Amino acid sequence: MSGLGERLRDLDLSGNPIRVALVGAGYVGSGILNVIGNIRGMEVVILADLDLEKVGKVYEDVGISKKSIVHTDDVDRAVSAIEAGKKVATDDLGLFSRIPRVDVVIDGTTSPKVGAYVASEAMTSRKHVVTTNLECDVTVGHILKKRADSNGVIYTATAGEEPAVIKELCDHADALGFEIIAAGKGKNNPLQLDANPQTVAEKVPNIGITARQVTSFIDGSKTMVEMACAANAVGLVPDVRGMHGAKATLDELTNIFRLREEGGILSQKGVVDYVVGGGVDPGVFVVITTGNKRLLSDLNYLKVGRGPNYILYNPYHLWFIDTPLSVVRAVLKKEPTIVPKGRPTAAVAAVAKRSLKAGETLDGIGAYCVYGTIEKWEITEREMLLPYGLTEDTKMVRDVGKGELLTYDDVMFENSVLLELRRQQDDLFK
Description:
Blueprint: H1 2-13, E1 18-23, H2 27-36, E2 42-48, H3 52-61, E3 69-71, H4 75-83, E4 87-90, E5 104-107, H5 112-124, E6 128-131, H6 134-151, E7 155-157, H7 162-175, E8 179-187, H8 211-218, H9 221-234, E9 237-238, E10 246-247, H10 253-256, E11 271-276, E12 284-289, H11 293-301, E13 309-314, H12 323-332, E14 346-352, E15 361-363, E16 370-376, H13 377-382, E17 392-396, E18 411-412, H14 417-428
Parallel strand pairs: 1-2, 1-5, 2-4, 3-4, 5-6, 6-7, 8-11, 9-11, 10-11
Antiparallel strand pairs: 8-12, 12-13, 14-16, 15-17, 17-18
Helix pairs in contact: 5-6, 5-14, 6-9, 6-14, 7-9
């Protein structure tokens, strides 16, 4: 990225930096705002959140004075503020779409409904989209990629998240002719499927992360979303519904991720999965093999496994901190970091955390009603399983027992941009 860094400095010196609209003033959004403040040649000119008071506070927390912040939903006033070098704070999540001098939009939320709306507005106004909202990506990412291509802009999930780091390792392996057996991550907490914001309250760190976010980590939904995103970008599948989630150390990965007839746990190669309890987290891994005898010998010498399987491992991921790298890549190189390719291979389906009754309204991701589980896309389509991302403000029309998968027949939707995009995506792959 050093060459891109030089180009960013040139933009800064020319007074023509990359101008970013950032949606979401929570933990992720505030973190992105903070890191972009360290980068020459890039600036956030609009920060949008439904909580306008939070927007102003987040700006001030990164050292922007109150007199430099203009609170407005008015386009002309926003344009004037930006031209005067001020920062716009707004609760209009689509204001950026009406302001010409915004190059790229970052979605720093976790709501699929918000993500679908933001991406749609951005593409209509021909602005690039970088998203940390993997929940939206695994729900409608394929159609968003198609719409971006049609509008001549880039849609991409962000660098720094596990899927992007996994894809980098997979691209490395594929370019060198290795066969990918499994790709995955270390999960840093035990799986508790019925976790909810109340049960995790004592585990919420005092750094701005919400109880809903922590719930999505502990109930496994975030891991399912991350691995589905990686699967759809690389062309992998879950071996079993929900993945295996074996307990393993780094040294044990190459033995565990073998075919069953070889002493491992897999029924097929080319899968996504995760492990717990062995210190693999917060890293990601790819298990590879090759039929080339010289390469087998070389890999043994390099101590990346004992064969016939070997491990490529990155011991960390930097989450939202790497998001500016995807911004630079999208704007200056017109390239995505990670996007769905071809037909979907994996999806995340909704499962009841408790008994659900007809008439009640589902509360979405990281809450009390449902968790997500990964499955092969073709199976979710055949069984009409309800996408996890479509569970926000969706009403039950039938009773469903705890632990049961929800189907489309179990619910009634309210109209939204997200629902329309999902219908278009379903039509695309019928």
